[in-house]
Task: inverse folding
């Protein structure tokens, strides 16, 4: 009985070993078949990504950033010093030309006007007194002349009378000159009094107010700015900075498209109104100011907004084009050969698949580009052809090594 149990145990152990061997062999066969079909499928999978050659509308643009500004912005200041007594306009207030928008305390200037007016009146009174003295001196001189002609008075008396007459006449002239001088001082005081009334110089909207009631403004050295008024916010302009490498393609009258951060999904349009020749150099980067005029009927655009501008320097419709990625593509073997030879293929080329499924180079000439697609002006390529834009195979030095364990 013991012997039978031993035989049965040996059979069980042998059966277990056979099962393990069969399982291992089956696993090896499955893994081998998987690798075989995987490698076979990889060979049959497409090696390149292609895109169809088609006709498109292409716009060649010059991009720049700029700031939205009102076409005409006026800084309203004051020519006299004093304390702000009243303010009649605030932020966003519409104003008309010659409308009163602020008042400087006029008390001091009114006193100066009154003093100047009194000085003029006193000078006019002195003139009347001098004219009366002149009449009396003339009368005395004529009488002395009559008496001297009769030898009734000495020559010295006649000379004294003539001197008094000339002195009186000079005094009258001096009084008249003094009246003119004091009248000018009166006009100056009245002008300063008029300047205490701050008037709007244009029709527009108050963009900013920089003073408050009770604030003292001093116009001793420079004119302080009280208000900034935009003349017409329905007409705006964008002052853009265009790089010197692109400025040659920009001209007055070209269309422009732009967006602002406030309305990123809403494109706006305008026209190039001015290309200023004055350069701006910042850290050896030279740019030129290009002014783009835009309409703003809905007042969406506000002064100070940053605009991302695309100036359309050339535009063509329904032209044969290829993706820019196709112009950049080059097969791996061509790239390696170019590296070994020290230079690659010259000119613009695209690659297509021949009947054997291998890349074939086609020389083309390129026209304008919008950054994504480029115009094809000549070359053995036509609408509907498929050009290679990307290789789906990894370079040999990037392929993972197959390890057997």
Result:
């Amino acid at each position: 009985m013991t012997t039978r149990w031993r035989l049965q145990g040996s059979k069980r152990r042998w059966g277990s070993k056979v099962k393990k061997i069969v399982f291992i062999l089956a696993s090896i066969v499955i893994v081998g078949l998987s690798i075989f079909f995987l490698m076979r499928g990889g060979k049959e999978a497409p090696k390149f990504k292609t895109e169809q050659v088609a006709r498109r509308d292409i716009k060649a643009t010059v991009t720049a950033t700029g700031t939205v500004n009102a076409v005409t912005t006026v800084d309203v200041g004051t020519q006299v010093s004093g304390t702000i007594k009243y303010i009649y306009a605030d932020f966003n207030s519409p104003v008309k030309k010659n409308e009163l928008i602020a008042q400087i305390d006029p008390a001091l200037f009114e006193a100066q006007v009154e003093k100047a007016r009194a000085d003029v009146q006193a000078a006019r009174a002195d003139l009347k007194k001098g004219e009366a003295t002149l009449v009396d001196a003339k009368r005395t001189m004529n009488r002395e002349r009559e008496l001297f002609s009769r030898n009734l008075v000495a020559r010295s008396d006649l000379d004294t009378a003539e001197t008094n007459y000339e002195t009186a006449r000079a005094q009258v002239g001096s009084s008249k000159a003094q009246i003119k001088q004091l009248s000018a001082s009166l006009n100056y005081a009245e002008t300063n009094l008029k300047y205490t009334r701050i008037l709007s110089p244009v029709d527009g909207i108050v963009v900013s107010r920089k003073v408050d009631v009770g604030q003292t403004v001093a116009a001793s050295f420079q004119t302080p700015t009280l208000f900034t008024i935009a003349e017409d916010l329905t007409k705006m302009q964008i002052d853009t900075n265009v790089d010197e490498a692109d400025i040659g393609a920009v001209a007055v009258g070209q269309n422009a498209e732009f967006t602002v951060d406030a309305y990123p999904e809403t494109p706006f349009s305008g026209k190039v109104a001015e290309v200023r020749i004055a350069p701006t150099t910042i850290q050896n980067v030279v740019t030129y100011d290009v002014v783009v005029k835009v309409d703003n009927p809905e007042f969406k655009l506000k002064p100070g907004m940053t605009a991302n501008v695309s100036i359309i320097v050339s535009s063509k419709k329904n032209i044969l084009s290829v993706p820019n990625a196709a112009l950049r593509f080059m097969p791996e073997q061509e790239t390696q050969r170019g590296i070994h030879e020290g230079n690659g293929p010259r000119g613009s080329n695209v690659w297509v698949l021949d009947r054997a499924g291998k890349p074939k180079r086609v020389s083309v000439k390129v026209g304008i580009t919008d950054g994504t697609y480029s115009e094809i002006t000549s070359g053995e390529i036509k609408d509907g052809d498929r050009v290679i834009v990307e290789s789906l195979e990894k370079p040999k030095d990037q392929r993972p090594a197959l390890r057997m364990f």
About this structure: Confidence is low (pLDDT under 50) at residues 1-7, 339-346, 401-405.
